[in-house]
Design brief:
Helices cover about 25% and strands about 30% of the residues of chain A. By secondary structure, chain A is an alpha+beta fold. Chain A folds into two domains: about 5-230, Rossmann fold (3-Layer(aba) Sandwich), CATH 3.40.50; about 235-325, OB fold (Dihydrolipoamide Acetyltransferase, E2P) (Beta Barrel), CATH 2.40.50. In chain A, the strands form four sheets. Chain A has a six-stranded mixed beta sheet with strand order 6-7-8-3-9-10, with helices on both faces. The longest helix of chain A has 18 residues, at about 165-185. Chain A is globular and about 75 Å long. Helix content of chain B is about 75%, strand content about 0%. Chain B contains 13 helices and two strands, in the order H-H-H-H-H-H-H-H-H-H-H-E-E-H-H. By secondary structure, chain B is an all-alpha fold. In chain B, strand 1 (about 230-235) and strand 2 (about 235) form a beta hairpin. In chain B, about 30% of the residues are buried. Classes of the chains: A alpha+beta, B mainly alpha. The interface of A and B includes residues 71 and 150 of A. Chain A: One of its GO terms (molecular function) is ATP binding. Chain A: One of its GO terms (cellular component) is ATP-binding cassette (ABC) transporter complex, substrate-binding subunit-containing. Chain A: This is Multiple sugar transport system ATP-binding protein.
């Protein structure tokens, strides 16, 4: 089991309030991603759940039991750190065995679990090496192995992929997702990368300045962002925001149009604009366009459309895909 | 090697490195050579080939027993270093793992005591030793040497402890380690190399310390540095005997240094290079 409930959790470092008060429920078996820009409090929130930081007020329940004052080792949670945090003086086997040894488990049981974890993570041939002799990806797997063997109530991941190169990051991302499908254990994953959040999560928690902006599945956040911040943070490239008379036509203070929801044509109807920059990715072309009516827009064009710098084009947003926001930045229904 | 180095340049560097090394080592070498000469040869002038006589060593041993100052050196250097470690480990530990706003200032203040010439405090310390009966005692000198080297010991340990990443300690906490297990299984093994090189460097520093040992001892607590000095006697300088005494004094520490080169280099860089 791995249900985690946060009630009015608040954290302040001295005078500075990092998290003013969060209510959040994480269900058993869910893959939850905390995402937000740096300094939004996502890592702090994870460390509060882990018990590595004390909360200033509020309550943390794990599996229905109050864990607010429990030390980190007694919460039944396992954590994978950004720097992997392997014990450099111990072999891979001893690293993975450490939590089991601390729990006072018998040697035979320890070995059975280590062998099993090593098989799952393709580490069987490396058990006698030291962390210093392993590659980045292998170290990451050892860190995950050390977490798996404890059979924790939930896994906590603190930006585990940010030290890996781009190609390996994609591979490890998929491995972690597969691991979740296999183990069906609750996972809480912190990242600033919205692509990781979108691809891995069952549920995304978008954080901004210590507050929860929105909680929902990746597609809910994409299709129905609750406010300007979420609308701008989820989706790549970013949503275009338009204010003024064009927005007023839709009875809104601000309207948002995603780059992929704009029809690009050379001479259709819509806003006229001049291409400032064209990024050709092959399948798609991203265009930065200066429109006299609505300002600067980023749009996605077809890859085969031969569009270049300084061409004049027309942009027509899809009517059913226009997001409307009021003057406080909240979404209008 | 990232840059291609031409063969000529390599030869040039090798010759230059050997020359520098020989120039630096020459005084020690000449001391050893002189110790193997007769007194007559020693004062005659520059001469690299001695008559290989052990006369001076015999005289040195019969005049002043070598064993006693040797033991004093061992007791003073090892004793003061261990005392310093006992005081410095908890201090550096606290400063590295729970620093406050004033930690850096305290470290600077401790180091600043090393910037003062030792002779500036000679009179007060001399008087304290005289009044408390510590003059020419091993215990007095051990404590003094400990205090002299303490700032360096704290600084070295502090930089080593700082290198232990905080996330590793947090990982241990997550893995269920209490404070005791954290220290026994994680911190101590990771701190041992740093403590070892600190220990080595400070044994050598204490062994070579000569200002205070010469000022504050006569016979009972005199270590090898004072033993050497006793051969520059009022009857005149006996170069061969002085050299023999020096060779005997630096021998043990030279051997220790040779075998612990690796740890020493790491110690000398104060943990700055990984």
């Amino acid at each position: 089991m791995g249900q985690i409930v946060l009630t009015k959790v608040r954290k302040a470092f001295g005078e500075v309030e990092v998290i003013p008060g969060i209510d959040l429920q994480i269900n058993d078996g869910e893959f939850v991603v905390f995402v937000g820009p740096s300094g939004c409090g996502k890592s702090t929130l994870l460390r509060l759940i882990a018990g590595l930081e004390d909360i200033s007020s509020g309550k943390i329940e794990i599996d229905g039991k109050d864990a607010t004052d429990a030390p980190p080792g007694k919460r039944g949670l396992a954590m994978v750190f950004q720097s992997y945090a392997l014990y450099p003086h111990m072999s891979v086997r001893k690293n993975i065995a450490f939590p089991l040894k601390m729990a006072g488990m018998s040697e035979a049981e320890q070995n059975a679990r280590i062998e099993n974890a090593a098989r799952v993570l393709n580490l069987s041939n490396y058990l006698d090496r030291r962390p210093g002799q392993l590659s980045g990806g292998q170290r990451q797997r050892v860190a995950i192995g050390r977490a798996i063997v404890r059979e924790p109530a939930a896994f906590l991941f603190d930006e585990p992929l940010s030290n890996l190169d781009a190609a390996l990051r994609v591979v490890m991302r998929q491995e972690i997702s597969e691991l979740h499908q296999k183990l069906k254990t609750t996972m809480i994953y912190v990242t600033h990368d919205q692509v990781e959040a979108m691809t891995m999560a069952d549920k995304i928690v978008v954080l901004h300045a210590g507050r929860v902006e929105q909680v929902g599945s990746p597609l809910e956040l994409y299709n129905a962002p609750a406010n300007l911040f979420v609308a701008g943070f989820i989706g790549s490239p970013k949503m275009n925001f338009i204010t003024g008379p064009e927005a007023a036509k839709y009875q809104a203070h601000t309207i948002g149009v995603r780059p992929e929801h704009v029809e690009v044509s050379k001479d259709g109807d819509g806003w006229e604009g001049k291409i400032l920059l064209a990024e050709h990715l092959g399948s798609d072309t991203f265009l930065k366009v200066a429109c006299p009516v609505v300002g600067e827009m980023t749009v996605r064009g077809n890859g085969e459309m031969g569009l270049h710098h300084n061409d004049t084009i027309r942009l027509k947003p899809r009517a059913d895909r226009i997001y409307r926001f009021d003057d406080k930045g909240l979404a209008l229904k | 090697m990232a840059r291609a180095v031409s063969k000529n340049a390599k030869i040039g560097y090798t010759i230059a490195a050997w020359t520098v090394a020989l120039v630096i080592f020459f005084p020690i070498l000449y001391t050893i050579i002189t110790s193997l000469k007769t007194e007559q040869e020693a004062i005659e002038g520059f001469n690299l080939i001695p008559s290989f006589t052990f006369e001076s060593y015999q005289t040195v041993q019969s005049q002043n027993d070598y064993f006693k100052p040797f033991m004093n050196s061992v007791i003073l250097s090892v004793g003061s270093t261990i005392l310093a470690l006992i005081v410095a480990i908890p201090a550096a530990w606290a400063m590295a793992f729970s620093p406050t706003k004033r930690t850096k200032d305290i470290l600077m203040w401790m180091l600043s005591t090393k910037m003062m010439p030792a002779v500036a405090v000679l009179v007060p310390i001399y008087l304290i030793f005289l009044r408390t009966g510590l003059m020419d005692t091993r215990i007095g000198l051990t404590v003094l040497l400990m205090l002299i080297n303490l700032p360096i010991v704290v600084w070295m340990l502090y930089t080593y402890f700082r290198e232990i990443p905080g996330e590793i300690l947090e990982a241990a906490r997550m893995d269920g380690a209490g404070l005791r297990e954290e220290i026994v299984h994680i911190l101590a093994p990771m701190a041992v190399p740093g403590i070892a090189s600190t220990l080595l460097l400070n044994v050598i520093l204490a062994w070579n310390e000569s200002f205070w040992t010469i000022q504050l001892t006569t016979t009972n607590a005199a270590p090898l540095s004072a033993f050497i000095a006793s051969f520059s006697s009022p009857q005149g300088l006996f170069w061969a005997k002085l050299s023999a005494a020096s060779t005997l004094a630096i021998g043990p520490i030279l051997i220790l240094g040779w075998f612990s080169q690796k740890q020493l280099v790491r110690g000398l860089t104060f943990g700055a290079v990984k």
